[in-house]
C-alpha cells in the first residue's frame, strides 16, 4: 500500500480507520442479533 509505505512483500490482516464523516447525517445501525452470529461446535455460512 503506497499510501502507508507498506512493502508489497507484506500483507495487511486488518486495517481500522478512525475519523468523522464530513456529513452530519448518521445512518441507522443495522445489527444482527447475538444468536445470529454466534455458533457452538459448528460452522454456519
In short, what is this structure?
Helices cover 9% and strands 0% of the residues. With 45 residues, it is mostly loops.
How does this model look, in words?
It is a single chain. This protein has about 45 residues and is mostly loops. The chain has 1 helix and no strands. It has one helix at about 35. It is flat, with a radius of gyration of 18 Å. The chain starts with about 35 loop residues before the first helix and ends in an 8-residue tail after the last helix.
Percent helix, as a range, is under 10%
Radius of gyration: 18 Å
How many helical stretches? 1
Order of helices and strands: H
What structural class is derived from the secondary structure elements?
little secondary structure
Spans of 5+ residues with little confidence (pLDDT < 50)?
Answer: none
Estimate what percentage of residues fall within beta strands.
under 5%
Summarize the main sheet: none
Q: Span between N and C termini? A: 31 Å
Mean pLDDT: 79
Instruction: Sum up the overall morphology in one term.
Output: flat
Tally of strands: 0
Amino acid at each position: 500500500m503506497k499510501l502507508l509505505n507498506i512493502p508489497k512483500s507484506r500483507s495487511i490482516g486488518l486495517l481500522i480507520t478512525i475519523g468523522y464523516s464530513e456529513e452530519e447525517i448518521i445512518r441507522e445501525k443495522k445489527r444482527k442479533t447475538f444468536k445470529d452470529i454466534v455458533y457452538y461446535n459448528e460452522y454456519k455460512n
